[in-house]
Amino acid sequence: MIKPYSFLSGVLLLAIVAGSLSMLGCSQTAPKNLKDGCSIFREKDDWYEYMYDSYKKWGVPVHVQLAIIYQESRFKYDAKTPRGTLLWVIPWFRASSAYGYAQVKDGTWDWYKKSTGNRWADRDDFEDAVDFIGWYGSITYKKLGISKWDAYNQYLAYHEGHGGFKRKTYLKKPWLIKVARTVKTRASSYRAQLKRCEGDLDKGWSLWPF
After folding, report:
1. CA-to-CA distance for 130 and 132, rounded, in angstroms?
2. Confidence (pLDDT) at 28
3. Whole-angstrom Cα distance, residue 16 to residue 82?
4. CA atoms of 51 and 175, how far apart (whole Å)
5. Element (H, E) at 94
6. pLDDT of 198
7. Residue 104: DSSP 8-state
8. What is the 3-state secondary structure (H, E, C) of 4-36?
9. Which pLDDT score is estimated for 199?
10. Which domain covers residue 10, as residue numbers?
11. d(CA 195, CA 59)
């Protein structure tokens, strides 16, 4: 005979496991409305805290972080570069090791972890990804003098690397310049949206230093 408390304990355990899996699934799904910053933070309320913490720490504003993540992964935690094909049909190697929300390559991620001491950081963790974007943007400012609020040039340096930006490799890539302009436009849109709803966000934090 099954004891009542044993049965109830089993049911409770199953409920906890199911709830945890459900919360994990929700936390890893991309927001429903990617083009609206207020909608993103209402759906993913902890994301605002993570991005604002990154802004306070590194100085790259939230709207710039959002625009970069939108461009790099569409907010997919496990985003990867597409596989190439051999003889047009056989799946082949991926174009690069870029992975996660911020599409960071293996070597660059190792540099970030070593530089910041964040040794357990994961590219598919949103908090770590936005901390990386802030950190990289601050390095871009120090090395290249690009304002942390300049979404256009920050993105070019993000995509090409600091050395590539110095060599102006982007000038040979008209498609990339077009993408960087899109990132700039989207960052401006996010900024305007967040100004309208920042009072409703957690703890009423202000995103703007002026």
Report:
1. 5
2. 78
3. 36
4. 28
5. strand 90-94
6. 82
7. B
8. HHHHHHHHHHHHHHHHHHHHHHHHHCCCCCCCC
9. 83
10. 1-30
11. 18
10 and 79 co-located in one domain: no
Report the C-alpha gap between 96 and 101 in whole angstroms.
15
Q: What is the pLDDT of residue 190?
A: 98
Joined tokens for residue 144: 């290249």
**What's 148's domain CATH number?**
1.10.530.10
Tracing tokens 């599409």 back to the chain, one arrives at 103
pLDDT at 106: 96
Tell me the C-alpha distance between 166 and 174, whole Å: 17
169-200 per-residue burial string, b: 16 or more CB within 10 A, e: under 16? ebeeeeebeebbebbbebbebbbebbeeebee
| Helix, strand, coil percentages in the chain from 3-state DSSP, rounded to 5 | 65, 5, 30
Q: Are residues 9 and 85 in the same domain?
A: no
In this predicted structure, what is the pLDDT of residue 203? 53
Please indicate, yes or no, whether residues 111 and 200 belong to a single structural domain of this protein: yes
Question: Which residue type sits at 206?
Answer: S
The predicted structure's pLDDT at residue 156: 98
> What residues of the chain score a pLDDT lower than 70?
1-27, 81-95, 202-210
115 and 144, same domain (yes or no): yes
CA distance 7 to 176: 60
Same domain? 131 vs 143: yes
Backbone angles phi, psi at 35, to 5 degrees: -90, 0
Tokens for 127?
């908090």
Domain count along the chain: 2
